[in-house]
Write a structure and sequence with these properties.
Blueprint: E1 20-24, H1 31-42, E2 45-48, H2 49-63, H3 70-82, E3 86-89, E4 97-100, E5 103-104, H4 112-121, H5 125-139, E6 144-148, H6 151-155, E7 161-166, H7 169-182, H8 189-205, E8 218-221, H9 227-240
Parallel strand pairs: 1-6, 1-7, 2-6, 7-8
Antiparallel strand pairs: 3-4, 4-5
Helix pairs in contact: 1-9, 2-3, 2-4, 3-5, 7-8
């Protein structure tokens, strides 16, 4: 199928030696784990775009800025980018490191509160605008794996490889609950399930860049698939789009 095209974006660029791999989908579908393993298997650079929105939510928390104050959150995001206070250090095949205000904050981004905060701040147009060029700067040359909710539709509509990774609400909540438990974070499954559903609703209903599968994305349900199986499917698609010369 033909993807939605924004006139501001160029058509797909077949001259890239290695493709852009876009993995979109809802929270808990396994995007982060799958993207990390795909990047490692292919030797590509991993870009966790969701971490950028989490970083804005964390910055708001650290500065005492209300997430519900859209104008203040947008100004904060623009200021972080303008001052280069928000950066991501990424190397091929390795997990990226998120640096906020000169401090590595990677571990602080995965708390339930910051996860919910990322969903809230991402609905503001000014935040998405501020982070858009930053995301594109990481991947435009190809040989990258990006995961998020609008990579294939907005950030890189010309990506050569697009997947929309999903799973049932219950399966995604169980994965998230297990992840939190493994990290020693107290959580209740019913609360996690409610948060997953609330985030889905916010991400899909927002006016700017709503979460949806690109028309030319492969929708892949990971409910009954292992991580290795999902990774194999995506890697095979990426290798078919590598230029051999």
């Amino acid at each position: 199928m033909t993807a939605d095209r924004d006139p501001a974006h160029p058509p797909r660029t077949p001259s890239r030696p290695r493709p852009i791999v876009a993995i979109d989908g809802p929270a808990g579908a396994g995007k982060s784990t799958v993207a990390r393993e795909v990047a490692r298997a292919l030797g590509y650079v991993l870009v966790d775009t969701g971490a950028l929105y989490r970083a804005v939510a964390l910055a708001a928390h650290l500065r005492g800025t209300s997430r519900d104050d859209g104008a203040a959150i947008e100004a904060l995001a623009m200021d972080l980018v303008a001052k280069r206070a928000l950066t991501m250090q990424a190397r091929a095949g390795q997990t990226p490191t998120l640096v906020l205000d000169g401090v590595v904050r990677t571990d602080e981004l995965r708390t339930p509160d910051i996860s919910q905060g990322a969903s809230v701040v991402s609905r503001y147009p000014g935040v998405r605008e501020a982070l858009l060029d930053l995301q594109r700067s990481f991947g435009r040359e190809g040989g990258v794996v990006l995961e998020g909710r609008d990579i294939g539709t907005v950030v890189f509509p010309d990506a050569e490889v697009k997947f929309f990774l999903t799973a049932t609400d219950e399966r995604r909540a169980r994965r998230r609950h297990a992840e939190l438990t493994d990290r020693g974070v107290a959580s209740n499954f019913e609360d996690v399930l409610r948060e997953v559903r609330e985030r889905d609703e916010r991400d899909a209903a927002r006016d700017v860049a709503p979460m949806r599968a690109a028309e030319d994305a492969v929708v892949l349900d990971s409910s009954e698939r292992t991580v290795a199986e999902v990774v194999a499917v995506i890697c095979a698609a990426a290798r078919k789009n590598e230029r051999s010369d």
